[in-house]
């Protein structure tokens, strides 16, 4: 991409490359266009994704297919209760040199990749889950007092099953906050299920082609950062976040009733960055109020804490967020 080209041409090139990724992934993944778009949106802002859905919906297949269309190093980690931090981060080992001396050398773990599939991440013990925090936010890991830099770009794409809770550990709030999006993978429709069965029970399995490499991905990530955000739009995103904080000046009635804690500042950053990607896909180089609304649920649903009353009444975070989205206006009353 020519970085000196007019913004309209660069935006058009972004849409073209984004569509090429969707097309290649669509050769393998049937349906789920919103999930595919959500994962790709996170990719171009350097964010991590948590995919939640029952088994068999293609979560792992989607991530594996994404690694095939991108020329990036891919690692799959199956999280289990006996998985230890050193199993994913790496450890120092003692080696004997040809001269007979012993020296300490760092042996890299599977986190030293560019796309990391953390399969069933909620099955790992909290100690191992916490080992992911530094990697997901800082793109580094620290072992034995030494900080090691992870490859660039670096993305964690995690999956979890919302139904089978035996042998699982809830993800810490600090770790959830490091996911740009939490995407809820819906069950397939009847037509999609027919296509899946037809496609997977024959010999001619589809193959995908490489679409872009790390250099192009980082170039497009820089383009996303250049998209403009007007002050009223940014303030709207911030007010939507503040509205999730119960018993505060901006907290709504629904948040006061059902939330124990609101979203962190990372939520506002996620709204703006994801809004920039949507703006480019809509052919604009500026974020609109609608862009913020469209990314509100996946960017916020995992950052709020429900209280006991919400759990007792079966209220979901999305239901409360929908009420907030309906109540908070684009322009605050009393301001121009």
Structure report:
The mean pLDDT is 86. It is globular and about 75 Å long. The chain has helices at residues 7-26, 33-43, 59-69, 85-89, 126-130, 132-138, 173-176, 190-200, 214-226, 231-242, 253-258, 265-281, 289-294, 296-300, 308-313, 317-327; strands spanning 48-52, 70-71, 74-78, 90-96, 102-108, 115-119, 140-143, 146-149, 155-160, 179-184, 212-213, 228-229, 259-261, 286-287, 305-306. Helix 1 (7-26) crosses helix 2 and helix 10 (231-242) crosses helix 12 (265-281). A five-stranded parallel sheet has the order 3-6-9-1-10. Strands 2-11 form a two-stranded parallel sheet. It has a two-stranded antiparallel sheet with strand order 4-5. It has 16 helices and 15 strands. The protein has 336 residues and is of the alpha/beta class.
- Shape estimate: globular
How many strand elements?
Answer: 15
User: Helical stretch count?
Assistant: 16
The radius of gyration is: 21 Å
Largest sheet: 5 strands, parallel
Question: N- to C-terminal separation?
Answer: 39 Å
Average pLDDT value? 86
Strand content: 15-25%
How would you write the strand order of the largest sheet?
Answer: 3-6-9-1-10
What percent of residues adopt helix (DSSP H or I)? 40-55%
Structural class: alpha/beta
* Uncertain regions spanning at least 5 consecutive residues: none
Concise overview:
This protein is α/β, with parallel strands linked by helices.
What descriptive keywords fit this protein?
single chain; alpha/beta; 16 helices; 18% strand; globular
Summarize the helices and strands and which ones pair or pack.
Layout: H1 7-26, H2 33-43, E1 48-52, H3 59-69, E2 70-71, E3 74-78, H4 85-89, E4 90-96, E5 102-108, E6 115-119, H5 126-130, H6 132-138, E7 140-143, E8 146-149, E9 155-160, H7 173-176, E10 179-184, H8 190-200, E11 212-213, H9 214-226, E12 228-229, H10 231-242, H11 253-258, E13 259-261, H12 265-281, E14 286-287, H13 289-294, H14 296-300, E15 305-306, H15 308-313, H16 317-327
Parallel strand pairs: 1-9, 1-10, 2-11, 3-6, 6-9, 12-14
Antiparallel strand pairs: 4-5, 7-8, 13-15
